[in-house]
Amino acid sequence: EKVKSNNIDVKIPKSELEAEEKGAEEEHPRESDSNILDVSSDYPIDKHISIQRHLADLEKLADLREDERKPCPLCPEEKFKACYSHKLHRHLQNLHWKVSVEFEGYRMCICHLSCRPVKPNLVGDQTLSKMGAHYHCIICSATIIRRTDMIGHINRHVNKGETESRFITVRAPKSSYEVVKESATDVQVLPNHSTPQKTDSYFNPKMKLNRQLIFCALAVLAGERKPIECLDAFGATGIMGLQWAKHLRSSVKVTINDCNENSVTMIKENCHLNKMKVKLNIREEDSDETVGNGEENSDTIEVTKMDANVVMHLRSFDFIHLDPFGTSVNYLDSAFRNIRNLGIVSLTSTDISSLYAKAQHVTQRHYGCNIVRTEYYKELAARTVIAAVTRAAARCNKGIEVLLAVALEHFVLVVVRVLRGPTPADDSARKVRYLIHCQWCEERVFQKEGNMMEENPYQQLPCDCHGSMPGKTAVLLGPLWSGALFNTGFLRRMLLEAVQYGLDEAQPLLKTLVCESECTTLKHFSTHSPGDENKQEECGVYIRTPNTSAESYLVHGKRKSEEVLRGAAKRQRAEHSTEHPPFYYNIHRHSIKGMNMPKLNKFLNYLSEAGYRVSRTHFDPMGVRTNAPLAQFKTVLMKYSTPTYVGAQAEGPVHLPGEIQVGEEVPAAAAIKVEEADLAEDDKSGVSATVF
């Protein structure tokens, strides 16, 4: 083609013109659609000047002015006047760079320019208003005032996968995932996986002990009958369901559910990561990938995307685990609606503030229970949850037997077995009672059964605080679960499963729970006690264990069956009579001022020698579970305490008035000698109990 330029005809090849036009058309979209996190020089031109990589880049913006005095590029003239370069360097470093927000190598410095609209003053003139400091988002160009809010704003972008400008939402790249391994199971999570409600893949490493306890409970149930259908109603990353399927194999049929689409996608990817096949729900779209073509085998996990209440209403399960963020009471009715007979429901409650009496109005709203902060507040929380579970099961004509109740720093775990029928439901409902708690000495007792009003309910308390103190001294707490919190036979089998699968963190806690359920010390603990070696009956069901021969399951004739039933009833009454005492006392709470307390293990021996049942408790490391009244507890504690001003005096009994002496107790020195002799014998003969 010919182009006229200064009256001179110039010939330009047509191919070069087309190439220049094509390059001009491609240049603009390449700049506008570029990724703002790209570390190359093609950075988008619409970025704010407060977003830089190095402090020197901010100084270069001020160097554009040729004068000796240079202004701050991020402050208006009326806020910071032009100055020399050394003073400007200190200003940029201290007021802008040190308070910046770092992300992917970039610094979002604080900006004082009039970028953000400010509120007008009372006169209505915006020029007289004070310019507010703010940050510019590197992703969406939003202006945020506080630094903490800016950090949370950036984290929300990362969780949603928004890594490009102009709100272009894409899935986070594979490199941004972290692979976490727990119990031979790999799961991939997002970077801030430990922040609940702000990420689609919530994974808390502190809940590893909780997951191990639930796995042991499921393994025990899988040994009773197989295969069993189990549900993880809130999958998140799916690690719990993956551990079930990976270790128990053909004994379980695992279903992992979550209502979040991103979580469901991540669960599927984690299944592939652990070489598990995925069976999609029939409600899934046909466009989704189906691995395994819906076939049933030991390596297949069913993944569903729906509300947890809907899943539990549609299908029946043998094992259901509920672990929502917060309280589980919204899902109890659905869980007990279709749970099979003798199935297990486990629930983890993380609403610690309400259960531990820090937000009592929330406890009243969620659980319909009145509680206060006491020395035994953790056991109070466990009994509060079990009471709500009991009422939900009774509405479905089902009773419960509590197999396990654990309350630790971060969660409250309750595992119950479901017993169908109105009779078990009535028996369980009768165990929900009110608790009378003395606010002066913290003595407590469950209210007696019956509907008749008592003239003086203070008479039920063993203490006499009401007679010696003015006003009302006790408060009514509840309704609470008044039955047992543990099943000894079930806990022993859980301990065996923990040893078999190498769950080291759960074994010490399970040993403590077994001792607590039997109300005995760890010194006398053994894996197979003589009384429980052939114990087969749990909640009316005969369970096969390795120590039982096949002949014990054969029942010949009607008379023989009646004898077996009568024997089972006698064993049930005997177990009920030896039920562990409710609640515990904290030895520090009841210590005597000016006295040195004995060691906790020695104090347990002193109480045992006085004729009381005693054990430690997992609820409180300094707690003592005993059937001794508080008055006798304090008497024994005072007797074996020493004055603080006697430095070299060994622990021994303190001579008390005759009315508070404890009868039939050996002196402290003799007790110490007996204990030392026992320890010497143990060292010589070895540990008689099985140690794992």
From TrEMBL:
Checking InterPro entries in the record gives: SAM-dependent_MTases_sf, Trm1, tRNA_met_Trm1_C, Znf_C2H2_type
Record field: compositional bias (Basic and acidic residues): 11-33
Region described as Disordered: spans on this chain: 1-37
Which terms does the UniProt entry file under GO BP? tRNA N2-guanine methylation
One of the entry's Gene Ontology molecular-function terms is: zinc ion binding
Q: Could you name the domain of life of the organism this protein comes from?
A: Eukaryota
For this protein, the record's Gene3D superfamilies field holds:
N2,N2-dimethylguanosine tRNA methyltransferase, C-terminal domain, Vaccinia Virus protein VP39
Instruction: Tell me the keywords, alphabetical order.
Output: Isopeptide bond, Metal-binding, Methyltransferase, Nucleus, Phosphoprotein, RNA-binding, S-adenosyl-L-methionine, Transferase, tRNA processing, tRNA-binding, Ubl conjugation, Zinc, Zinc-finger
Gene Ontology cellular component annotations, sorted alphabetically: nucleolus
Looking up SUPFAM superfamilies in the UniProt record yields: S-adenosyl-L-methionine-dependent methyltransferases
As for subcellular location, the record says: Nucleus, Nucleolus
Q: Where's the C2H2-type domain?
A: 137-157
A Pfam family assignment: TRM
Per its record, the protein catalyses: guanosine(27) in tRNA(Tyr) + 2 S-adenosyl-L-methionine = N(2)-dimethylguanosine(27) in tRNA(Tyr) + 2 S-adenosyl-L-homocysteine + 2 H(+)
For this chain, the family text in UniProt reads: Belongs to the class I-like SAM-binding methyltransferase superfamily. Trm1 family.
Question: What name does this protein carry?
Answer: tRNA (guanine(27)-N(2))-dimethyltransferase
Q: Which organism is it from?
A: Rhabdornis inornatus
Q: What is the lineage of its organism?
A: Eukaryota, Metazoa, Chordata, Craniata, Vertebrata
